[in-house]
Amino acid sequence: MRNSTTFTTIMQTALRENEVKEIVKSTGYVNTGRKFTVYMLFQFLTIAAFGKWSGYREGVDIATSCGLPTVDRTTFSKKASSVPFDIFKRLFHLLISKCNRKTRRKLQLPSDLLLIDSTTVTVGKERLPWATYHGERSGVKLHVAFDTTLEIPVQVRETIGTFHDGRIGEKLANFNYILVQDRAYSKVSRFDEYSQRAQFFVTRIKNNLELTYPIASAFEENSNITCDITCKLGSVNCRSKKRFRVVSFQDTNGNEIRAATNLYGIPAEEIAEMYKARWAVESFFR
C-alpha cells in the first residue's frame, strides 16, 4: 500500500532539516524567514510537482491537506523567487546520492495492519487477591498486538485488570505496521508522537474530542462515509501540534464512528475498512 502516506512524509524521511540548513549555510544565503524556511519551501515545491499544482494560489489552499503548514500565497511566491538556484541544485544532488538500496528499504511503507486491543480475564477475588478488579472479582488483562495477515498475535503483554490500555499500547507499536486501535488508545499527544516517528495509525477517537480548523475533502456520495476532513485535535488546553485526517463513517448498525489517522492519499472508504478490520482481534479473544 505505497499510497498510504503523503509524499510529504517521504520527503521528510529522505531529507532532514539539518541537512538543508548545512547546504543553505554553505551557499551564504541568509534565511530571513523565521517560519517559512528553505526547508519548508522545498517541501512545498516537491509537493507542488508531485500534485501538479496550477499555481501558488491553489497550493496554499490544499497544502494543509497534504500535511503542510498554512502559509500566505504572497509569502510562498516571494520565498520561491528569493532562494538561489544553487541551493536547489545541491539539494537535488544530495537526494540523488541517497537513492540507494538502504534508503529504498528505509522508505518502504507498511501495508499490513497491527490490531492493538486487550481483554480482561476475571476470577473470584480469593483466587487472585493481588489483582483486585471490581467488587468481588479479581482480574488480569492481556494486551495483544494481532497481525491481520498472519492471523496470530505477534506480541502479548499481561497486567492487572485495572491497568490502562493506552500505556501498554505505546509499547506494542511497530513501525512495520499500520496500527489500528479503539478509543482506549486515543490520546492527542500520542498522535503527535506517532507522526514524528513515522508510525502510521488508524485510531477511533472519542465523540467529545474537539476538531479545530477543519478543511473538508471530497468522498464518494454512495458510501457509508459521512465526513473526511483534516484538522487539529483537542481543545485549546490540549491541542495537537500537527494536523490529522479524521474520517467519519457509519457501522452496520448505523452508529457514527470517527477515526483519526496520519494516512493520506487513499480513499476514505479504505480508512473505514482498516478500522473495521478490528473485528479480527475481537474474534480472536472470543
Q: What features would you describe in this structure?
A:
This protein is an alpha+beta fold and 286 residues long. The protein has two domains: 7-106, no CATH class; 113-285, Transposase Inhibitor Protein From Tn5, Chain A, domain 1. It is built from eleven helices and ten strands. It has helices at 7-14, 17-27, 38-51, 56-62, 73-82, 85-98, 101-106, 165-172, 188-196, 268-276, 279-285; strands at 113-124, 132-134, 137-147, 152-160, 178-181, 201-204, 211-216, 225-233, 244-250, 256-261. Strands 1, 2, 3, 4, 5, 6, 7, 8, 9 and 10 form a ten-stranded mixed beta sheet that branches. Helix 1 (7-14) crosses helix 3 (38-51), helix 2 (17-27) crosses helix 6 and helix 4 (56-62) crosses helix 5. It is elongated, with a radius of gyration of 22 Å. The protein starts with 6 loop residues before the first helix and ends with a helix. The relative contact order is 0.12. The model is unreliable at 1-5 (pLDDT under 50).
Mean pLDDT across all amino acids: 84
The portion of residues forming beta strands comes to 15-25%
Class by alpha and beta content: alpha+beta
How many structural domains? 2
Number of helices: 11
The Rg value, from CA coordinates, equals 22 Å
Give the full name of the CATH homologous superfamily of the largest domain: Transposase Inhibitor Protein From Tn5, Chain A, domain 1
CATH-defined fold name of the largest domain:
Transposase Inhibitor Protein From Tn5, Chain A, domain 1
Percent of residues in helices comes to 25-40%
Name given to the CATH architecture of the largest domain: Alpha-Beta Complex
Described by the principal axes of the CA atoms, the overall outline is elongated
The largest β sheet comes out as: 10 strands, mixed
State the CATH class of the largest domain: Alpha Beta
* Uncertain residue ranges: 1-5
H-E order: HHHHHHHEEEEHEHEEEEEHH
Number of strands: 10
N- to C-terminal distance: 30 Å
